[in-house]
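Q: Please design a sequence for this.
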């Protein structure tokens, strides 16, 4: 197999850039995994928050029922007092309790669905990319480093090795005849 290598330094720069890219990619994958874990933890925290809210709302419903039942006793004159405020408080407390229960159900759904969604959407491609970064990329970098070493050795053996000629010039016109220096030509 032939190669038209014009600059070993450019290959070295590419090797360094590829190594840096691999490191950056590995860090990015770790960051994505961390963010996915944070998302799952956040949903779990929300579940705990809404479960506490349910307990608080249940207490509020109990208090509102007690206030309403105390208020419904007839006055000394036999008339039943106005209970609209207490009834409204009970309706609001029940609505808050219902909302908190809905949020708990949603959090539980997401805690069940989120790992599956992450695995379906990110798991396979993420693992393949991680395998590439951890396995194939180091092998490729080692192979490239070996080839750079071979090119360096080859360039050291050839005294006539020179960079590519400038545009418009032919390689033969730029090469010097060793006999020209001696005055014979």
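A: Design:
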């Amino acid at each position: 197999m032939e190669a038209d290598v014009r600059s070993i330094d450019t290959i070295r720069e590419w090797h360094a850039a590829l190594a840096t890219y691999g490191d950056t990619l590995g860090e990015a994958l770790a960051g994505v995994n961390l963010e996915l874990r944070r998302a799952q933890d956040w949903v779990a925290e929300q579940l705990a928050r809404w479960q506490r809210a349910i307990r608080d709302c249940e207490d509020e419903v109990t208090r509102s029922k007690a206030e309403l039942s105390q208020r419904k006793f007839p006055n000394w004159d036999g008339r039943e007092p106005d209970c609209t405020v207490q009834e409204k408080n009970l309706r609001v407390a029940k609505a808050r309790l219902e909302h908190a229960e809905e949020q708990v159900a949603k959090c539980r759904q997401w805690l069940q669905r989120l790992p599956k969604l992450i695995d379906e959407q990110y798991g396979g491609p993420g693992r393949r990319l991680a395998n590439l970064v951890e396995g194939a990329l180091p092998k490729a970098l080692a192979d490239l480093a070996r080839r750079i070493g071979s090119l360096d050795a080859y360039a050291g053996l050839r005294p006539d090795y020179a960079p590519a000629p400038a545009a418009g010039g032919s390689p033969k016109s730029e090469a010097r005849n060793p006999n020209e220096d001696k005055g014979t030509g």
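Q: Thanks. Anything notable?
A: Residues 169-185 have pLDDT under 50 and may be disordered. The chain has three helices and no strands.
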